[in-house]
Amino acid sequence: MAARPRFTSRATVLVLVLCSLVAILAYPTRQFISQRAEISAQQAKADRSRQQVEQLRREKARWQDPEYVKAQARVRLHYAMPGETPYIAVDPAGPAAARPSASASGVAAGAAPAASDGAPGGSARAAKPWYASIWDSVDAADTTDAAVPAPASPRPLPPSPAGDTSPHDH
Predict the structure, then answer these.
(1) How deeply is 115 buried, as exposed, middle or buried, from its count of CB atoms within 10 A (0-12, 13-18, 19+)?
(2) What is the signed CA dihedral for 155, 161, 164, 168, rounded to 10 degrees?
(3) Model pLDDT, residue 150
(4) What residues of the chain score a pLDDT lower than 50?
(5) Alpha carbon of residue 116 to chain centroid
């Protein structure tokens, strides 16, 4: 009695057909999954855009109100109505502690009014004029960058022809 083969020709053909089907369907399945993920990402992006549009519409509607525009001019630009005296409250702890707030009716409790030249009082840096601050920054930049070598002295220009007073060559 002869031993029966482990795989018959029918079983071998069936295995080959199944492997071919898996190989054929693998790429479209992967594409389908990646496209579904891309669709989900685009839908989320569209939702965020819709929310942003709604927020901008609400903000536009607020800017249509003249009272809102006046309030924003007071807060952002430190404007005041005719007859009012604007003051800027300065935090004595420094500018990093809090932003200065504007008050159209007067000085907030515990705050000092702004100096007449526009600089807040009580700060050593504000006591210096603007050009002194600029010069100090130039000096600081010059001293901290000492590792950079100085440029070589420029090459002397050839003598100019008689009567020519221009500094460039012709």
Answers:
(1) middle
(2) -30
(3) 56
(4) 100, 102-122, 170
(5) 34
